[in-house]
Amino acid sequence: LIKCLVDNIVVDISFNQVGGLCTLCFLEQVDNLINQNHLFKRSIILVKAWCFYESRILGAHHGLISTYALETLVLYIFHVFNNCFTGPLEVLYRFLEFFSNFDWEKFCLSLWGPVPISSLPDMTAEPPRMDTGELLLTKAFLDRCNHLYGVMPRTQENQGQPFVSKHFNVIDPLRANNNLGRSVSKG
């Protein structure tokens, strides 16, 4: 991985890495499922802009949230609220409302629901919804995406490693032992 700064824009160039492409394919599948003129992608762009320019919380290279972690958080909002949105601004509102009340000190976030940090390495999630509402992504859809796009680490020592909790914990939908929040510093 080579990190470059081009006109104040961070550019990553990776070699022999398929994880990023698999993630892209997974998010493309989700966007196709949601449809609505790429509402998912447009919402990610708006939430990323807010996180970068307004709250200054986006940028893994500075100890902040990674892009993929943020995309997973946006996906969680679509998943739990079952794609009931009319536009990206509504998604941003729901994103801010939901995650400002999420107990990050006690829970990891996964698409299956909040996972108590105290129960790790057990990944049993609490239900993401307390009502009888439907979730957007079915188990079959997520299992199929995990089969198609889930990348196993090439080195044997990484394959059996448990999820390691940090200050901010987001479970990768494609690899459960990968903490997408590992880049976030305590500050």
Automatic annotation (TrEMBL):
The PAP/OAS1 substrate-binding-related domain sits at 34-187
Q: Which InterPro entries does the UniProt entry name for this protein?
A: PAP-OAS1-bd-rel, PAP/OAS1-rel
Pfam families per record: PAP-OAS1
* Name the record gives this protein: PAP/OAS1 substrate-binding-related domain-containing protein
Task: Cite the source lineage.
Answer: Eukaryota, Viridiplantae, Streptophyta, Embryophyta, Tracheophyta
